[in-house]
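Box 3.1 A note on notation
Throughout this textbook, protein chains are presented in two layers. The first layer is the amino acid sequence; the second is a token string describing backbone geometry. Keep the layers aligned when reading.
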Amino acid sequence: MRLIIVLIVFIAGALPAFAQPMPNHVDPSAREILPNLAPVPAIRFLTTVDFPPFNFRDAGGELIGFNIDLARRVCAEVNVACTVQAWPWDQVSNALVDNQGDAMIAGLEMSPATAAKFDFSAIYLALPGRFVTRAGDIAGFSPATLDGKIVAVRAGSRHEDFLKRYLPQVTIAGFPSEAEALAAVQASAAAAFFGDAMRASFWLNENLSCCGFASEPYFRPDLFGEGLSIAVPAGHDAVRQAIDWALVKLNAEGSLDELYLRWFPVGFY
């Protein structure tokens, strides 16, 4: 399953890229411990082509995206050879188990099932839940004002579970997709949307005159998942440690912020 998840920073509304507060991508307390790179002459990354803007092909067929840029910067940071190979989603994890690669950067969910086969790097990006309202309602918005009002969600999502648990007084309207739920807000058929902030940011990029993020992000690992990380075969500690070291360095240098601004013009934090 793909991750829809968590991080840390508060913004009121959709801000232009140059004004966005920067997310805290990697644990700021993590220490920069240089790993022994002798066993890591190269890192063979595996990914997919169906998860834009993280990993996909452009009109010319080139493999691009946030994850692709990140994989290459990890290799450059630890100064090892790097390849990035695309696989179908239903085959990529098996390819990693079969030693077709050294690491998988494709949004594999951390779960008891995947933990039996893989170890995971530090979280490099997390995806909070957020409310979206019409532009004129953003300034005075508060979840406390939603009692009795319609809130649109993707039906069956963890965000719907969140609303049922913490805002039982709202009227929940479920839709097949985030885009349809957001369109209900645009059409004034719902007072607000609550759901995955990353997916909502793509829709807002095309509808900024209509709507925007309201109130703060919600970070609930128990509901929304832990975050995006890189999977390696269980026990391949040298590769995992090299990746973790690179993530700490890239965060400290501002490279993760740069990638975030490049690939997410409407920030979701």
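The first strand starts at residue 42 and ends at 47. The chain has two domains: 17-126+226-263, 129-218.
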